[in-house]
Batch of 2 targets.
Target 1
Amino acid sequence: MSDTNTSSVERVKCLIIGSGPAGYTAAIYAARANMSPVLYEGLQPGGQLTTTTEVENFPGYPEGVTGPVLMQDIKKQAERFGADMRWGIVTDVDFDGEIHKVVVDGATNIEAETVIIATGASAKYLGLEDETKYAGSGVSACATCDGFFYRGKDVAVVGGGDTALEEAMYLANLCKKVYLIVRRDELRASKAMQDRLKKTENIEVLWKHQTVGLKGDGVVEGAVLVKNKGEENESNVEIAIDGFFLAIGHNPNSEVFKKYIDTDEVGYIKTEGVTSKTNVPGVFACGDVMDNSYRQAITAAGSGCKAALDAERYLAEKE
């Protein structure tokens, strides 16, 4: 552990790394099980949902709720049962022994009997300034989260893989028209997905197009594209849209754990069967850092519950 120093070491029964629905829910269950959880919230306390405006599909909020309020509510519930919430980013780990060693902010040393990893995943973006400018005002990386707000409108989806086609077809059921912006002249998606795409009449594929900007007065009203970029017949194209959806993948926030924890080729943490168990005894994973399929607040919360229950059982078996 290159980040360790000579400062005193704190010993905890349950350390939760990361916030968001998974981490906060794990904290609720761990606290109620008298595991005295300590949770470090990471770079973005509350996770990706804090950048989302309206959330209408989380149970218990019939009128909907904003992402930040939802996260605050779950956090308060965990704190009510005694969870210790802290600011800080995990910068190094040592999972070699039975006691798991973690360094926070390069200075604070923690030894934990159990560790729950809930660091989430970050959506990939194109890197345009306009993506930041219109974040929450027409730009989204989750069609199932935000598609409802674009019922009957025209939207665009960027990407050419299975996820992009799934997002496009989901939106096609809600929206008037969906543009699928594909950088190449072919799709990476499976044949089955491509066959479904061909049968969806209100999706128009824009082959060999790349987005260079977005337009609109406060909200997205259009996208500026380049067709055949770098070729002799390169041309600029503008499309009128109300929503711009990114579907070019996610980066699981698992890098600091990879020396000890098994991940897939993308970086999602591998867990055993339906459990949250990783390849390291006493270390569990939940939420988007291990979920490459659903990535929803409610599924993340459910997996946080599982991780806490698995950690509780692990401790009980050791006694």
Target 2
Amino acid sequence: MAFINLTNVSKLYKTKQVTTKALDNVSLEINEGEFVVIIGDSGSGKTTILNLIGALDKPTSGEIIVDNLDITKLNNNKLNEYRANTLGIVFQNYNLINNLSVLENIMIMKDIKKDISDPKSMLTEVGLSDKENAFPLELSGGQSQRVAIARALVKKPKLLLCDEPTGALDYENSRHIISLLKELNEKHNMTTILVTHNQAFTKIADKVIELKSGQIVKLYTNDNPIKPKDLEW
């Protein structure tokens, strides 16, 4: 059985005058350990899928199974457990706390999950062992995103969700972050879903899902994904 399975998932947003169909009867499977890239224009439904898998929103209809758990049927307490124990999330804008040091920004995950990896070891893994006492405003964009990745991974998640993690970065920092995400995916066999506008990133993916107007218009696997260091755009 697939690690993630969406079956006939739709998501509608309603106002008094307009109903917007963000996702339209989407079904897909993602296997454990896959590096998946979801591509599409703004408004195509990319972030909606990520939010539904991350239990940050609920589908209007359909079923979402993650690691044999039907998250569409969980109560709030069980959803909190799912987010704490299964997920790591990396956002575009880092969401670091400016008055906490780099190390403290990672250690706050202990408030969510008691059993976390060693924060200092995680900083070493993302190449920031010399920045543990620095503050977010002293970091570059690329360094800030590395801290955000370390914070997500310190919980030892089975599933890493990345929402446009390079969207605010320049070319070189984008290459570094994508390389790091791919390396961590392979090292920890951690299912990784990357939402992006960047078509080039599809070349490193195990599986590519292309969305348009809330529907999957293309889904394929790469038999021989290239290395991130060989990416150009």
